[in-house]
Fold each of these.
Amino acid sequence: MADVRLTIAGRAYDVHCADGQEQQLIQLAAIVDEKARGITGGTEVRQLLFSALMLADEALEAKARVNKAEPQSDSLRAAVALAESREAEVRGELANARAEIAALRKAAESQPVSPAAPPAGPQTVPSARPSHDRALLAIADRIETLAAEVERLA
């Protein structure tokens, strides 16, 4: 046990406290002393009574602010978790789209290219395989969807 001498409202008090708690006790006494010195007139007991009441009022106001902030912080945590999960989903879809693009490029590179000269006038490029057209359209749709999702999240 440690002994601490505290001065509150001009009066010294000898107080016992657990070892290591001396500084905390001195800080608390300084707060009480500040409140007590702010109250003019009346007896020392009256000063300490009103100091205690004002500190209790401050404690209740602080509790009310904490209680009001807790639901807001809970909803913010939920929103962050949702955003993180959506980001993970979008990153996964983007990785899949990149893999598909790489696979299509590799497949396109392995296709033989005809050295024939292109015909004059407007032309359409026939696909080597109809499945490539469908795959390219699906990839384009996915890319547009992912881009819209990224813009929405940003």
Note: Residues 58 and 64 are 10 Å apart (CA to CA).
Amino acid sequence: MTTTADAMPLSNTIQTGFEVSIQRTTAPNSARLSEADACRPGSLRRVLGIKLKRWRVPELIEPAGLLLSELVTNALIHGQGDVGIRVHLAEGRCVIAVRDGSSARPRLRRADAQEEGGRGLLLVDALAAEWGVSPDGTTTWCSLHVNEGPSTMPTPPALRDDAAGDATVSATLSAGSVAA
């Protein structure tokens, strides 16, 4: 069952992580994303997948990617200014935090069947072990439990360690779709 908390879990024992900041091209509180911003969740999801594979937790690629996509999309639509993303592994959890610069606190809501959006936090609530919002309302975070021991899932050929993986991350970052 998902629990919701306001305080983002902090740890003195962060094992590994990354931070990224992206510059928004969509006007704040716009109902539609710009073409460039619409591509950002997918680019970040690919980078996260590479990182999780390298951190030897490939079982988190799909759920963490979906959670990151939802939080980033919400930040781009409802936030203000640059969007900051931080992902780290610590104490048996993968924590994803997205800063959107807006003090308006996100809230769960039930979308009508005809609405195209409005279900992102329902997905976060369903998938995350826990989630919450910082006291100032600018950061929404969630966490997933990391399984103990080695993954039993085989590594897909496209995700095996090789120089192409590093080239993919570098190309994504240098192409301007994600600014570090």
Note: The radius of gyration is 16 Å.
Amino acid sequence: MSRPPPGHRHAQTRRWSRTVRRRESPCSRSAFAFGELHAEEFLQGLDRPTFILRLAHHYDQVNFLHPFREGNGRTQRLFWDRIAGDAGWYLNWEAVRGETNDHACRAASEGRDFGPMYRMLDQITLAATEVEAADAEGPSSEHWRRVPPAQGRR
């Protein structure tokens, strides 16, 4: 049987499958990543710098899992929104450009350099009380018009 030409859908599938097999067992890796997050009480009760530092670490851990072919970034943003909201923080993802996120993720995963990830998260992390207070004031402030209201928080 001949090989499909480079770039063919099946060639990409095989390449992706080999990459997954080289990694640790997905179950053990996810158990470790989420177990570690659980042990840190889902980042609740941390001051802002510590929250951002630990979020950067856990963001990289979950990003490494990469369980879906498509939608990993969107799924992670929803997941981290929930973790942040439950911990009293708000993540304004609209302030992040795709290139900035890609660079931060690459630096963390390939070079173990969490500086870009920390700086990115530092720019978008707000105290949930700030966002709620601004929502109560209404859309009079130009700054807060760009911040979407926090939804789905307890």
Note: The longest strand covers residues 89-91.
Amino acid sequence: MRSDNLKSYLPPFLSTTDLFANIFNSQGQELDNIDVDIADLNAQFDVDTATWALDIYEKDLGKSTDYTKPLDYRRSVIKSKWRGSGKLNATLIKTVCDAFTNGNVEVTFDGTIQVKFTSVYGIPPNIEDLKAAIEQIKPAYLAVAYVFLYIYYQDLKPFTYAQLSGYTHEFLKTNLPNFDHNSTALTFVTN
């Protein structure tokens, strides 16, 4: 607390009086509050840690603010808009996708833009935001194909019906089980 720091500037016989103790405690609390406010303001300068400043970033980019979206989704939209300028090629599209998927995509171009998710099983929750970002940077005449990764039947062959019976088909499509031989329990690799 700053009050201890302030007291160190006075001789000991003054810093222990009730008058100075009260003054320094009051001023120390105010200075501590200022430190918290400065730390919060500094956090707003980085889109990865920003909270209330996301509104400002979105306004600058001409995006409407959707408070129903989680902060991470809003951040990824902002980052993709920043990255989405320049000559359109697979690298640019991958850069935009990386803002949404943390680098887990392969992008190829053979007349159609193909975005393949390589480590996220199923359809990513923010796919609509990613589609909107790609639509904004690509020419209208180019088509985009999205390829999603799912668990295949052969991936589940090592497991018995009894081991998997407690899980739904929908759950097993996007969650790959791992068998722990020491405890006979299943753990899951999830998104």
Note: The chain has a mean pLDDT of 81.
